[in-house]
Design goal:
The chain contains 18 helices and 15 strands. By secondary structure, it is an alpha/beta fold. Among the domains are: 196 residues, Rossmann fold (3-Layer(aba) Sandwich); 28 residues, no CATH class. Helix 7 packs antiparallel against helix 13. The structure holds 6-O-phosphono-alpha-D-glucopyranose.
């Protein structure tokens, strides 16, 4: 049986606080010591990935206390409760079942007589069957022509994850013959977002998926109407081009305006929903069902590692614990995710929602304000581009920002060129290796303007190539890291009350039900 306690009630936390500044990473990474750390401080992940934490400010003493904290806070036990169907989402009194959508880790989870694993598999098969029929030309437009394009209409968790995963594999799919359909995304209520996508496609050959778990999101419903208007103006019947992915209780579920409806339940939160119909329909249409299944397999293989109580064999838990040490003991408010892979260009954006919407909380799971900091600010851009943007601050700024690099030995497309003795891929990899050492070891210079203090921590997840499996394992790693950190902080990582107020005020503005500052701002826009 687990107990839910605040971080500052733990004896191990008191011990951890005593270890502030315990490791000088500049010293620890110098010379041959550094080489030994790089070899030693690494943990295998799934799908051929490895989590290397040599440049993090930890040593065996810190790691031992982190292991005590994991045990005292019952982190893996709480994960077991979660995947066995406990009500972990206390804010909404819901189960949290996104792991079950990729593979069953524990017991059967039965809700109202329904086996939830069977439900998820059934919806994945429904999406696969539909996609196969579209690819085979068995489902066509009214003129009998094959559909060539699929457009997802959604926002937040109904956009960020699926979009990041699509972009991550778009070129891999083209290179390996899995580019079945072109995919586009409409998310913002800004009319230029929808108009630009509509201007870029042949709407007569396009399917549109209206994706909204709640079925009530203003932007998504507005963009659905926007697209329907364009279809009608093109002389087309919208109901022959529109699909929906929604919860069974949403208003969209009852509408017969759709060619097909795919369902998710209330137990997979939006920011964790790429494994549900939210990601499954568009990814199965774009790449084929087998590729979506391979992503899920990569996720499930990483989840399995997360059930290990030995933190040195559990990369997701270890990354989470080091992050807590950096946030709560070292006092770093931010962290950056820096993938040295252009294909992962939208991955940091997805992690911003997944992490900050999960752990950006100041009350615990019982509604009591906590007396310690919780979720960090997440940002990031692909390397090497970030090096030409914000690395100045990262290297010489007054704030230390812990860094999370991701890198692959091989590109996806394979086209490369040797210039001055090295390929572009080698240049990319050389840069990320160099950055880790530059941040950790710095460079002494009498001219303080040219001095690099070093001592700036980073980790790297490194793999051979970004494939469906390694992408899945990478995503699961961060989802599980966020979950474990939420358990450490004793917050409910699975609701999002903080996004509701803005929506309510926007509705008041549009209804001209305003006063004070709200009216004043509305007047500025002449609403
Ligand atoms: O999928 P929907 O119900 O349309 O919700 C879309 C998004 O809206 C909200 O703002 C939440 O913050 C997100 O977690 C959610 O993913």
């Amino acid at each position: 049986m687990v107990t839910w306690n605040n971080l500052d009630t733990l004896k191990s936390y008191d011990k951890l606080k005593e270890l502030k500044g315990h490791v000088d990473i500049k010293e620890a990474m110098a010379g041959e010591n550094g080489a030994k750390r790089v070899a030693e401080y690494t943990v295998p992940m799934a799908s051929g990935l490895n989590f290397n934490y040599a440049a993090k400010q930890v040593d065996d003493e810190v790691l031992n206390v982190l292991a005590e904290l994991a045990e005292e806070q019952q982190l893996v036990d709480k994960f077991e409760e979660l995947y066995n169907g406990a009500v972990i989402n206390t804010g909404e009194q819901r189960l949290v079942l996104h792991h079950l959508a990729r593979r069953q880790l524990g017991k059967d989870v039965i809700v109202d007589g329904v086996n939830k694993r069977d439900f998820y598999v059934e919806q994945q098969k429904k999406a696969a069957d539909f996609a196969n029929k579209v690819h085979a030309g068995e489902i066509t437009n009214e003129a009998g022509e094959k559909f060539t394009t699929v457009v997802q209409i959604g926002i937040g968790g109904s956009d960020l994850g699926p979009r990041a995963l699509y972009i991550a594999l778009e070129n891999w799919a083209k290179t390996n013959g899995f580019d079945k359909m072109e995919a586009k995304f409409i998310s913002n209520v800004d009319p230029d977002d929808a108009a630009a996508v509509l201007n870029s496609i042949d709407v007569s050959r396009s399917l549109f998926i209206v994706v909204s778990k709640s079925g009530t999101t203003l932007e998504t419903l507005t963009n659905e109407a926007f697209v329907k208007d364009a279809l009608v103006k093109a002389g087309l019947n919208p109901s022959k081009h529109m699909l929906t992915a929604t919860s069974e209780t949403s208003p969209l579920a009852k509408s017969d305006d759709y060619l097909e409806a795919f369902f998710m339940d209330d137990f997979i939160g939006g920011r964790y929903s790429s494994v549900s119909a939210v990601g499954g329909v568009i990814l199965s249409l774009a790449f084929g069902p087998e590729i979506f299944a391979r992503i899920l397999n990569g996720m499930a293989d990483e989840d399995k590692l997360a059930t290990n109580k030995n933190i040195k064999e559990n990369p997701d838990l270890l990354d989470a614990l080091i992050g807590v040490y950096e946030r709560n003991v070292q006092g770093y408010p931010e962290t950056a995710v820096l993938p040295y892979s252009q294909a992962l260009s939208r991955f940091p954006a997805h992690l911003q929602q997944c992490d900050m919407e999960s752990n950006g909380k100041s009350v615990n799971r019982f509604g009591e304000r906590v007396n310690y900091v919780t979720g960090p600010i997440i940002f990031g851009e692909p390397g090497t581009n970030g090096q030409h943007s914000f690395y100045q601050l990262l290297h010489q700024g007054t704030d230390i920002v812990p860094l999370q690099f991701v890198g692959f030995k091989d590109s996806q497309i394979g086209t490369d060129v040797v210039i001055e003795g090295s390929t572009s891929q080698k240049k990319l990899c050389a840069n990320v290796a160099a950055q880790i050492v530059a941040f950790a070891c710095g460079k002494d210079d009498e001219n303080k303007n040219k001095n690099f203090e070093g001592g700036r921590p980073s980790s790297i997840i490194i793999g051979d190539q970004l494939t469906p499996e390694s992408l899945g394992s990478l995503l699961a790693h961060f989802e599980n890291k966020i979950m474990f950190q939420g358990f450490v902080w004793n917050v409910n990582s699975f609701d999002q009350e903080g996004v509701q107020l803005g929506k309510l005020l926007a509705k008041r503005v549009l209804a001209h039900d305003t006063d004070g500052a709200l009216k004043a701002y509305s007047d500025l826009f002449e609403i």
